[in-house]
Amino acid sequence: MAAFRLPPRLLLQDAAALRASLLALRGQPVELDASGVAQLSTPCVQVLLAAARSWRADGLTLALAAPSAEMTAVLAHLAVAPGALRSPEA
């Protein structure tokens, strides 16, 4: 399984780079290390949700590991369960 450490800052201006990084990993199981996320914007949450849908459609594992307290708080504020950022295989 490939490991990808999410950067500490995932703001609007970082969404395109996040998308590109995730697309480069498509086609293989991936574990997202979210332990260092300090800032998270809605556009980046949307990118992560789209990635989970893509991995699910591909029948591959996308796992979210150790989401930071900051990430968990933003997801809760947006009413997004952390499990939504995983494929069912994770």
Strand content: 15-25%
Low-confidence stretches: none
- CATH topology title: Transcription Regulator spoIIAA
Strand order of the largest sheet: 1-3-5
Specify Rg, calculated over alpha carbons.
12 Å
In words, what does this structure look like?
This protein has 90 residues and is α/β, with parallel strands linked by helices. It has a single domain (2-85), classed as Transcription Regulator spoIIAA, CATH 3.30.750. It is 41% helix and 18% strand. It is built from 3 helices and 5 strands; from the N terminus they run ββαββαβα. It has a 3-stranded parallel beta sheet with strand order 1-3-5. Helix 1 (15-25) runs parallel beside helix 2 (42-58). The chain is globular. It starts with a strand and ends in a 13-residue tail after the last helix. The model has no long low-confidence stretch (mean pLDDT 95).
Helices, strands, pairings?
Elements: E1 2-5, E2 9-10, H1 15-25, E3 30-33, E4 39-40, H2 42-58, E5 62-65, H3 69-77
Features:
3-stranded parallel sheet; 90 residues; two-stranded parallel ribbon; Transcription Regulator spoIIAA
Compact overview of the structure:
By secondary structure, the chain is α/β, with parallel strands linked by helices. The protein contains three helices and five strands, in the order E-E-H-E-E-H-E-H.
